[in-house]
Amino acid sequence: MTGTVRIPHGTLQAFAAELFGRAGLRPHDAAVIGHDLVAAELRGLASHGVSRIPMYLERLRRGVVNPRPAISVTKMTPAVSLVDGDDGMGFLVAHEAMKEAIALAGAIGIGLVGVRRSTHFGMSALYVQQAIDAGYLSLVFTNSSPAIPVWGGRTAFLGAAPMAAGVPGGRAPGFLLDMAMTGIARGKIRLAARHGAPIEPGLALDKSGAPTTDAAAAFEGVCLPFGGHKGAALAMLMDLLCGVFTGASFGGAVGSLYFDHGAPQNLGHLMIVARRDLFVPADEFERRMDTFVERAKACPRAQPFDEIQMPGEPEDRKATALRAEGVPVSAEVLSDLDGEADRLGVARLHRG
Amino acid sequence: MTGTVRIPHGTLQAFAAELFGRAGLRPHDAAVIGHDLVAAELRGLASHGVSRIPMYLERLRRGVVNPRPAISVTKMTPAVSLVDGDDGMGFLVAHEAMKEAIALAGAIGIGLVGVRRSTHFGMSALYVQQAIDAGYLSLVFTNSSPAIPVWGGRTAFLGAAPMAAGVPGGRAPGFLLDMAMTGIARGKIRLAARHGAPIEPGLALDKSGAPTTDAAAAFEGVCLPFGGHKGAALAMLMDLLCGVFTGASFGGAVGSLYFDHGAPQNLGHLMIVARRDLFVPADEFERRMDTFVERAKACPRAQPFDEIQMPGEPEDRKATALRAEGVPVSAEVLSDLDGEADRLGVARLHRG
């Protein structure tokens, strides 16, 4: 990548935190967001990393995101809570929701937390990892602004709507799935458009409903779901569970991060968390997970694979590598970040 | 379809129930299975209908399925129960598990039920519909005998593993998703093989790991997941949640329905059920669902669609039609059913 520089992840994290601190967030909250954005970079998910900082700051400036939300948690039953995000940064709202879901599951075995009045929460893997770190299984759902059509439609209606899930491991790594409902993440189309790169065929339609490989046209058009009608149905499920069910916006009404700065998003999330020792003791659960991973990795391989990895394992390895090598940041993104640094009176990132 | 006859659904249902009754099931249980198999036929899912009767009866005869199980329900917490299916027919075990999940959710908002020592439970839509009929949201997961490879593998390891979910509607129909993790259901490959019909390319590998369109070779080989690595990861999640987590068989150890008559399957299921009025009142939930459906159906259409339907709606319409027209049953399946009728001393199906 021409013009790409490597930034130590700690440096990038502190820089991002400082920007959000100057934008009015509490220092602890700003540090969480710095950590989370760089965590996405480390997992190789640059589409959900620091390239989004200017957009998040713009939304804070316009007042459609609340820098100091009073996030409220209301217990509806001993196993169910409702979180009202008060239009705060989705990262903060979702971490609070996951914390509550873990607490409920710890007390009664399972926790269901519905979230409304939230905003874009970055990479879903953040909250799945939060549950895994605490030793819990989780399902993490969110809705999002319209990006893909319903099955049979040609305009954006459902969100790209990541669906995520995690199962903690034993000695071997567990399972961490974080997948967009699109064949390609919308953020990756945006990055391709920035770099003038094309996208593969079959992933998107342009505004008129025609197939396109032009990333800019695709970003203004519509992504297609992965797996045809099955992906489309899963994306619909995300909006029903996170929007209709929770009381958040739904059915095409979630505002765009990029095109709609007029009002808060009222995004919804749904988290379901379970204790791993509900049906077998914890040590047996760990042994069973290890056995599963061992068997999976021993399967005869298809071409051209030279190894079988668990979902989440390639990203973990990427993170280990990037912690050593530094996080690659493109010249375009650096230039945007310089602009934000100048505007907020923060020292520009040192190019090393 | 040459040699296909139409049988009134009530006739078919009573016939199936009689067979299972003669095979040693309690009359009520036999009636449930008759109903459920014909419900699959009515939804157009012949692969999960009466064509499976000879296989189910064979497993009962061989003693790997218990005709009169003592299904036990153990409350682990006020929100979580464990169901032990005692190797009974999966239909009976899963209905009992869903009944318990609904009871838990009714009392405390959400119910999680893990199931082990179950067997093949037919079409997942049965249990989602049970929840919808009671006015509840549900996720219904199961594992199954090895049918698809892990991502990067070339042998069957994970189940075709249907994933299903439901959301009750308001005045308009709600949402009912029941999808196999394969690009094509294993049962559909089996039916194609019976009829000597080919399958589409890209759906399966033969035993050697080579792509095939020969249904018989595919049935002995491996189905590919839908949506590439995303479908493969979802299939793995089904086995982790339904096998590793619940204490059932997992990781390739679930016995095949067709090739392994040596031992009970020890299949696992997981059901998560929630009350619809947890975050908004029930009438508001219904209005929101109706609004969603209205908006989805009003989306501009892609070619060649002349209508946008909710997941589950085509199957509902099919059922309405087949209730009027009768259920199509092929000559091959009829002949198999005649054989079972003769063996058990039940009157053959009248051809009308």
Question: Characteristics of this structure?
Answer:
homodimer; 352 residues; alpha+beta; Ribosomal Protein S8, Chain: A, domain 1; Wheat Germ Agglutinin (Isolectin 2), domain 1; 7-stranded mixed β-sheet; two-stranded antiparallel sheet; 40% helix
3D architecture notes:
- Two copies of one chain form a homodimer.
- Chain A is of the alpha+beta class and 352 residues long.
- The first copy, chain A, has two domains: 4-182 and 225-278 and 327-344, 2-Layer Sandwich (Ribosomal Protein S8, Chain: A, domain 1); 184-224, Hypothetical oxidoreductase yiak, domain 3 (Wheat Germ Agglutinin (Isolectin 2), domain 1).
- Chain A has eleven helices and 13 strands.
- A seven-stranded mixed sheet of chain A has the order 2-3-4-12-5-8-9, with helices on both faces. The first copy, chain A, has a two-stranded antiparallel sheet with strand order 1-13. The first copy, chain A, has a two-stranded antiparallel ribbon with strand order 6-7.
- In chain A, α1 runs antiparallel to α2 (27-42).
- The longest helix of chain A is centred in the N-terminal third of the chain and has 19 residues, at 90-108.
Strand content of chain A: 15-25%
Looking at this structure, what is the CATH superfamily of the largest domain in chain A?
A: Malate/L-lactate/L-sulpholactate dehydrogenase, NADPH binding domain
Number of helices of chain A: 11
Uncertain residue segments of chain A? none
Radius of gyration of chain A: 20 Å
- The quaternary structure here is homodimer
What is CATH's topology name of the largest domain in chain A?
Answer: Ribosomal Protein S8, Chain: A, domain 1
Sheet bearing the most strands of chain A, described? 7 strands, mixed
Text of the CATH class of the largest domain in chain A: Alpha Beta
**Largest interface, Cβ cutoff 8 Å:** A-B, 73 and 72 residues
Based on DSSP secondary structure assignment, what is the total number of beta strands of chain A? Answer: 13
Strand order of the largest sheet of chain A: 2-3-4-12-5-8-9
Question: What is the total number of structural domains of chain A?
Answer: 2
Classify the helix fraction of chain A into a percent range. Answer: 40-55%
**Measured distance between first and last alpha carbons of chain A:** 17 Å
So what's the overall shape of chain A? globular
Mean pLDDT of chain A: 93
Order of helices and strands of chain A: EHHHEEHEHEEEEEHEHEHEHHEH
CATH architecture of the largest domain in chain A: 2-Layer Sandwich
- Given the helix and strand composition of chain A, which structural class is it? alpha+beta
